[in-house]
Amino acid sequence: MKRRSTMVIAFLLSFFLSFIPFSGNVINAATPTAVAPVSGLSFTQGVKKTVLENGLTVLTKEVHTAPVVSVQVWYKVGSRNEGKGESGISHQLEHLMFKGTKDRPVQFGRLFSALGSQFNAFTSYDETAYFGTVQQDKLQALLTLEADRMKNALIGAEQLASEKRVVISELQGYENSPSYRLNRAVMKAAFPNRAYGLSVGGTKADVEKFTVEQVRNYYQTYYSPDNATLVITGDFATEPVLKAVKESFGKLTKNQKSTVDSQERAVSQNSQPPTPNSKASTPIVLKEPGSAALLHVVYPLPDIKHPDVPAIDVMDAILTGGRSSRLYQALVESGLASSVDGSAAELIEPGWYEIEATAAPGQKLEKIAQVLQTSLSELQQKEVSAEELNRAKTILQASFVLGNQDISSQASQLGYNQTVAGDYKYIERYLAAIAKVTPEDVKRVAKTYLVPAKQTIGFFEPTQPDGQAGTSGSGSGRTVENFSPGQPVDPAELAKYLPPASSSTVSNQQPLPQQFSLANGLRVLLLPDRSLPTINISGQIDAGTEFDGNQKAGLALLTADNLMNGTQTKNALALAQTLENRGTSLEFSPSREGVSISGEGLSANLPVLVQTLADVLQNANFPDDQLELSRQRALTSLQVQLDDPSTLARRVFQQAIYPENHPFHSFSTEASLKSITRDDVLNFYRQHYRPDTTTLALVGDFDPVKVKDLFNQAFGKWQAEGKPPALNLPKVPLPKTSTRLNKVIPGKAEAVTYIGYNGISRKDPRFYAALVLNQILGGDTLSSRLGTEVRDRLGLTYGIYSGFAAGINPGPFLIEMQTAPTDAQKAIASTIALLKQLREQGITESELNTAKRSITNSYPVELANPSEVANIILNNAVLGLSPAEIREFPRRIQAVNMTQIQQVIKDLIQPENVVIVTAGPGDTASK
Q: What pLDDT does residue 6 have?
């Protein structure tokens, strides 16, 4: 079961996708899944539905917990609506919607960024959505921009040609992922005559053939007010906002083409799944370059309105909902698989249920499939226990509450339900039905839908199971192309296209956290927030991979991964059930400078969450069998990393910057992981897991006095001896010349490149100026200089970003991009030329002011999410910043001046001294 957030979105084809392989068109759960146990809590209470004369559905919900608003436009069109030769046209159009309008012929990403909006867009099977969250005084501006592009988008030859290359780069990036390729093969076989059987992004062949007329006709057919839902949530007054909506959207006319309903793909009146392929039970086998062996199974399901949907989702939670789930126990705990997951796609048309598993090293897919089928048969033959049923329901219910803590998620929930289920109130009926699911219901839907004769199963058998990264080449020297970048976009010129914002100012009344320390040195930060019955814990322990060393690289990882595998009083299953019975979660994730702690749950379960955290931090016992299973999972993960251009390139990049004696140089290897013993793990745990190196931040619905008592009781007896371990990090000079490294991974379609060198720490006095400069250079792929030149003008990359990885210690300054192999060299040359332009010409006062406004305007949006606030509070404390930093940050950004920017450019922009690392198919080397 994939973690339920506020909605279920299939394959999120969006502008801000990181370079992480997708596992196909994976729907996280077609129906949103989960809230009931909280008394009196309604997701639709206070929602007002208004339908304008032109057919636009408007949903408004006032939420006055933070001075921000979210504006989302959901169009009822996705890959489901695409005909022959149109595969991917919905997604192509989504990209073009950012290219400007007749009255505003500029990149809309620049306009949104100037407003400080956190914005995005995605295309899925049934819908395409655009959303932005801003300070409340920018609401009118967002409405104006969204209304403008609903009817007036620029869809011309120039825009289409540029964005085609970007889309193809995106699609080819997915080809790097074996799980994506397996998913595509299985879905095509499962649904050979339906649009759902094709990838949402379409095929390269179809995208290359799109004409301006074809895309424009598609836009004019489906982008109509009567085929859209506008959702507004946040801090506003309903009546004035509805008046503004009528002024901006009300003047738009319906399409003159025949109604959208008649244009849609015909939907079967029978909501039952289609007849399966008669050969579906024969495994599809892909033998291709890759790393880990993969299994993917698909079963047809009914549509979202079918009465079996709640029981199907409960069944999914029983099978794959957490560590205590049946398939995790049968496949992962047995050592057959390193991971297993499932999700139900209940959509406008009949959908599917899918199960994915990654084989553990040396395990056969046939054996995994056999054990999987045995587990499914048991579910079909015997009713689940009351405990198991209640746990599944609680997981589903709680995840809805936790997934709707911020207004953007609440808006998405409403938009999804209205668009796909046809009614924004669907969630209330759905959750009520979840509560009524019986053991008989679960057994019945398992027998009805998990039928071997109806399944489509696929195996991915890698031809490089050892996970070797292939050959490499290196060279020093400058790139030889002569490249002249275009002039930077002048924000002053851009400003004339910005709709006016209201004159109201939003004062920063952000409350500051209370801070206290236990006698043993444990630091705790508390920030009560009674707006929702939830709690969010963020924490860090100074036990990161910087303490590994090259010979035992992976030690911090194995230690953190085994914390939840047993204590002196509870084994791994008991720990999992303690949390999952209450719908809470607790995770540990190691990074360079610490182990991150992440926990969330309903506020009533705070004591259990804190007590479990205290137990594992003080009493973990690292059983041998669990340690070995986690080692096998780490080895599988290593194989996948070495087969992924993004993670391999970052590894090589990091090791090229930092010398072998630097803690940031070490990365896990097969040899280092296999060399780690239980004694190594125990010693690391005893040495580094200490109260005086642990910081916890708690945000949510709690009484600070009671919480202090709770922490004292849970952690008061935790003691550490001596001083905590410390590191002496050597200074890292810039490379003397430009260095180019290439790593070849067979079977990949796209290349990933990193460019950069060692940078600065977070407490460096130049940090704020560097942050502002980076916003201009590459902080956002749609509004930055790098994005404007390399992505928009040249169409060489799906995404390009820059950043300063500034932590307790100096981390790298880096630029990351994904390109076609044949475009890598030109994109690199373009990037270096832009860095030289920046160093030689600097920036304008207008760029400086716009970047500062963008950062400070978007900051309140981050503070509107309780889990994000917990992270900010924690990070400020760990980095040694004042508790007031959460309030002072915007002022420090606004104080950055041109003199400081010029100094940062002089100190930190060094285009002649970059390390350049490219990983991909192989034909990317410097010519």
A: 33
